[in-house]
Amino acid sequence: MTMTDAAPTGPSTATDGSAPLLDVRDLQMYFPVKSSGLIRRTVGHVQAVDGISFQIESGGSLGLVGESGCGKSTTGRLVTRLYKPTDGSIHFEGRDIAGLGPRQLKPLRRDIQMIFQDPYGSLNPRHTVGRIIGTPLEIHDVVPKKQVLPRVQELLEIVGLNPEHYNRYPHEFSGGQRQRIGIARALTLQPKLLVADEPVSALDVSIQAQVINLLQDIQREFNIGFLFVAHDLAVVRHFCPEIAVMYLGKIVEIGERDAIYQHANHPYTQALLSAAPDVKQAAIGGRRERIQLQGDVPSPINPPSGCRFRTRCSYAQDICAAVEPPLLQIGRRHKVACHFAGEIGHHPAEPVTAPLLGVDRHGDRVPGTDPTPGLGTDSGYSDTWYDFPGRRMVRDESA
Amino acid sequence: MTAPLTPESALESHFVDEDQPEPDGSGPIVSKSPGQLARARFLKDKLSMVALVIVVLYVLAAISAPLLVKVGFLDPYATNQDLLNEFQLPIGAWGGISGDHWLGVEPGVGRDVLSRVWYGISFSLAISLTATVIAVLIGVSLGIVSGASGGWVDAIIGRAIDLTLAFPQTLMLLALSTVAVAFITETLGVPEGNPAQALYVVTVLGLFGWTGVARIVRGQVLSLREREFVAASQMMGASKFRLYFREILPNLWAPILVTFTLIMPAFVSAEAALAFLQVSIKQPTPTLGNVLSDSLRFAENDPVYFFVPAILIALIVVSFNLLGDGLRDALDPKGHQ
């Protein structure tokens, strides 16, 4: 990727000074593993999310992809503060919400809402649709009691349901309709950020498109920022201009749509993409060569040292076990965490990150050199980045 | 979806018709709620229906008894010495059954047995119902709190359940009755005699009977709290109280109903046993228990007088149990097979 690439100009946070809607830095979530028996000692931690950083612009949308158990849903629940993070910060509109208590969180619920995965489990089966959608209004005392019903009907209409169905129960609706009810509930308080936790993965494929389009229209109409958690690459590609790929609690690659889908630099992203069926390839009669990953995802209780993907990576060398690769910016809006980052078929033989980290190709410290400070800790994008093919820092001249 | 749509809405294209009437004219397929399905299953179960009818008859009897006593149809206290022979046993076959006394008369003083047991059902059911309500209220509240909050709260409530179960309650009930009833009359100002006795029995049954309910409810809550609607409720900023009693509680009515119908008969027989041991309401006020206890003195010479309350107690206990089982099968078709 060169500087002259005509990438669509998104609001660059590093330069224009306006704070992003959501700024997550070094977020960590360790779930304690307790021993059985009377005295339940903590014997270890599931490192579900381990130091991830990203930003979401107002009205922007970030897709979070990865296989099961990589921590993407946990990230969603951390951002909505259903979980309290072990460490790290979550700045929402400039305010750190990572450490807030239940009482302080209540006003925040208006601004951050969530769409859940399972349309059957996320609606209380004993409540009518009107009550489900109206409850947030009641809790936050937003409108007088008399206006709850009109507002509920308005919301039902927005999500494409019959407003007269407010007194029905969830079991009277289909999966797609239930997910619409869940979306209406999330919209009730007019949030600024919506976390969608695999909102369509439980739906029929024919219904998925309808719900995705509905979400897209809602996003445009109300200018809502989205954190879109999904494992379906096609859905994310359609919905999110920016995508983060997670593996075992870490972001391995993050960038705008084209950077990820056309110029993936991380071996894991490449393997993930090669696993997705491709309509265009099918049309011309062939299919992309599949990169088959060997083995299973390692346990998040005891993840591999250095790069977490090294146990399944065909490019892994000594340095991968010794030093963890930082999430380096390698393009205008593209970051990757790999010692041997490169587009498919162009992975370098030498670790490209070694000079920046002050280590040799085996990961041993080179005397007299220091690791570049603050490497890969920024949540946003900078206007200078490290150009891997050229082995030098370059500056975005369009900024 | 028949609502008029605003044509200018950008969302129009996503309106879907997912519940249009069927083209063959049979009308829309109406899905049955879990409640409707359970009702259908219950109505098909003949044994449960018989049990339900019997329970309803008992309840009607209990409600009507005080009224019938007031209008004079029943008189549980009038003595009829003229119907007894020199051994104070009823004159005539089958314990003195006649057109005036359908179930005969009591040996000793000659009170009408039908009036005694009919009125007795009233007291027995009132006591066991009150005790059941207390037990279910305590059990449901503690069970929900225990299951939903987990952690040390759960541990404390769990130990409290163990402690309650380990208590020798029958022994304590007997041993403490005098002291406790004295406390109730003197400190709480409840009138001496039957009201104080009844309050004592109700309190003790309630305070020791909640453990089973709490355990069942806790188990249900443990599975419910993993459902996403609980997270959704937290997401809305709902308070703990709202979460427990508005979101979770409505999903628990089936197990609560079942435990209710299973505790109730246990308390009916417990009350009978206590009456037998002279702890509950005392003669001359009748309960099924103290009528049975009284009848034992004459069991050999007047078996009818003994069998009437005994059968009535057995019948209500069995009916309630069958009803509870039937409800459980209807409400939870997957389990208990």
Automatic annotation (TrEMBL), chain B:
Its main location: membrane. It comes from the Bacteria. PROSITE patterns: ABC_TM1 (PS50928). It holds the Pfam family OppC_N. Residues 121-324 form the ABC transmembrane type-1 domain. Residues 1-30 are annotated as: Disordered. Keywords: Cell membrane, Membrane, Transmembrane, Transmembrane helix, Transport. The keyword Transmembrane applies. It is found in: Cell membrane. The chain crosses the membrane at residues 47-69, 117-145, 165-185, 197-217, 252-277, 304-324. The keyword Nucleotide-binding does not apply. Belongs to the binding-protein-dependent transport system permease family. PANTHER family: D,D-DIPEPTIDE TRANSPORT SYSTEM PERMEASE PROTEIN DDPC-RELATED, OLIGOPEPTIDE TRANSPORT SYSTEM PERMEASE PROTEIN APPC. This is ABC transporter permease. The lineage of its organism: Bacteria, Bacillati, Actinomycetota, Actinomycetes, Propionibacteriales.
